Amino acid sequence: MSDTIELQRDSDEQTGPYVRPDVAMLLAMMAASGAPPMDQLPLADARDAYRMMRFVADADPTPLAIVRDLTCPGPAGNIPLRYYDARETREAGPAIMFFHGGGFVIGDLETHHPYCTELAAKMDLPVIAVDYRLAPEHPFPAAPIDCEAAARWLAENGTSLGLDITGLVFTGDSAGGNLTIVVTQALLAKPAAVPVIAQAPLYPVVDSSQTSGSFTDFAEGYLLTADAMKWFGDTYAAIPGDPRHDCINGELANLPPTLLVTAGLDPLRDQGRDFASRLVKAGVDVTYMEMRGTIHGFICLRKGVPSAQDDCDAIFRGMKAMLAL
User: What is the tens place of the pLDDT at every residue in 139-197?
Assistant: First the structure.
């Protein structure tokens, strides 16, 4: 598969950025609600608000043959997982591991449950979602430690799920996109029982030093704000420049085929573009998609932003092409 970069210009000096009509409607509704931003809520309330957002803005879960909660051992105790599969049984093949977003502070198995059911159904592959530890109770590097432990466990214990796993595919959104790359890098440095064959980070945070460009252009009014990013960053307390967080500083040359997705109205858009460019220069097999006119978090907004379903379907097509399914 050839490297592709399709950077779409989504702003004009005179007219401002292009905003899809359904995105504009959701943003207007949220502004009119008068609800305080999550970064101004008590932590427990912010987590509850993020969890409840699923029932307001996301699609209903897709029916599957298997949705099962389980755990795997981790360095600080058992790590909760959720196993999704459209089939009761299947032949040998790859498995997908999903890491949820939420700034390393909020989010869990419930916030991304609808997307994980859709991912399992559309990809026709088993999906295992990871409920890693969150800050501030468990600051950096608890999240990547848990996610790496879960990935290594899955590589060695697929038979416990009735699976013959031949390769791992990592994906996740936002903070989970970061963890996708970080865990891939960790398993390349020290291989697991089965190889990492692909990764699909979705609007990931990859470089905490980037605070200009899209970070400034979309700092307010597009769901994810600069203030929220500061709250997440301060709470997570990652070491600046550490490749386990600023994964743009990690080893890039040997990464597996990568589908990297950004959102056109996202503060994180430009660092995603930069990361994709660096991957291409490093010789990585890259497919880059920028979803024009939409916002950070769109994979969990398929009811509030109906066009997000098309974006998700494009992601699934890209993942299938990357895996030659």
Answer: 999 999 999 999 999 999 999 999 999 999 999 999 999 999 999 999 999 999 999 99
3 is catalytic: no
Of the pLDDT bands very low, low, confident and very high (cuts 50, 70, 90), residue 14 is low
174 is catalytic: yes
Amino acid code (one letter) for 152: R
Q: With contact defined as beta carbons under 8 Å apart, do 93 and 166 qualify?
A: yes
Angle, helix 175-189 to helix 142-157, in steps of 10 degrees: 60
Q: Closest Cα partner for 222 from 10, 24, 45? A: 24
* Whole-number Å distance between alpha carbons of 273 and 18: 18
β-bridge pairing 66-74 and 77-85:
antiparallel
Task: Examine the residue annotation and report whether 207 is marked as an active-site residue of this protein.
Answer: no
Point out the catalytic residue in the list 100, 112, 245, 296: 296
Tokens of 62: 């897709």
Q: pTM for the whole thing?
A: 0.95
Catalytic residue among 174, 208, 245, 311: 174
CA 15 to chain centre: 31
Q: Is the peptide bond before 204 cis (omega within 30 degrees of 0)?
A: no
Catalytic residue among 207, 266, 270, 311: 266
Which residue, chain included where needed, has tokens 């089939």? 87
Residues near 49 by Cβ (< 8 Å), separated by ≥ 6?
35, 38, 41
